Amino acid sequence: MSTRLLSSAVPDRVAAIWDAEGLGILEGAVTGFASAAYLLDGSAWANARREEIADRVVDVMAARAWQALPEQSHGRARRVARRCIAYSLAADTTRADGSGTARSDCWTLTTHALELLTIREHFDAAAHRARELLGAAPQGRLLAAWQMVDDALGALDRTRHEWVGADPATVAAAGWVLVDRMSRLLIAAALVAQSASAESAQDAELLVNAARRYAWNHLRRPAPEAATPTHVQRSADLVHAFLTPGSIP
């Protein structure tokens, strides 16, 4: 059977759950995580903890910005975007509450999304949708968030050839970096768009702060590079050596 045919009933079910309930699951996890914020004082430890809570709150705000968009507006990117966003919801839930189930689901959702991202039409549709949402450069503090998304889109284009047409089973070894990047681009662009159209100064302040922080947290990494068969073999060798007593120096 072709390694491109990775899908099964199980990935479809996992993706369907995160697609339908993922935002609610993430909101619940972050609400529990953030509940301790009221007890924090002004100590160094408290400030560090509050910063992490704020990062998780921003993840929820960004996911809401994406969910607020009409699904039909995504056009040709609708199907691949759904799979990518499902991954990011599970990954962010893991960050918020350490859920072992969500972490395991991330692996399933990665391979599920790669089935489409390794196909030119789907890869390009997702990237185009992010660019479409991002729009023209804004003015003011929102420009920093816009620039980070724009830079990340440029970096994605530089490694596109490594993913499009690749064997999904091979690139799955580092596939989460592409699925994560594509989902963050889509979500960050949606948040920038929502920030630019905020109805009040108070809303704009919160949304712009969230857009800047979300892009800073998720899009400043190197361009996503695909794994090769050599990389896959080296990973297997490392694991085998670790499990063989006396094999690691």
Sheet-strand content, in percent, reads: under 5%
Q: Roughly how much helix do the residues carry, as a percent range?
A: over 70%
| Largest sheet features | none
Q: Which structural class fits the helix and strand makeup?
A: mainly alpha
Assembly status: single chain
Give the low-pLDDT segments: 1-8
Secondary structure tally: strands: 0
Give a description of the structure:
The chain is mostly helical and 249 residues long. Helix content is 73%, strand content 0%. The chain has helices at residues 9-34, 44-67, 78-97, 100-117, 120-134, 142-158, 160-163, 168-171, 175-196, 201-218, 229-243. The model is unreliable at 1-8 (pLDDT under 50).
Topology diagram in text:
Blueprint: H1 9-34, H2 44-67, H3 78-97, H4 100-117, H5 120-134, H6 142-158, H7 160-163, H8 168-171, H9 175-196, H10 201-218, H11 229-243
Tags for this entry?
single chain, 249 residues, mainly alpha, 73% helix, disordered N terminus
Could you provide a short overview of the structure?
With 249 residues, the chain is an all-alpha fold. Helices cover 73% and strands 0% of the residues.
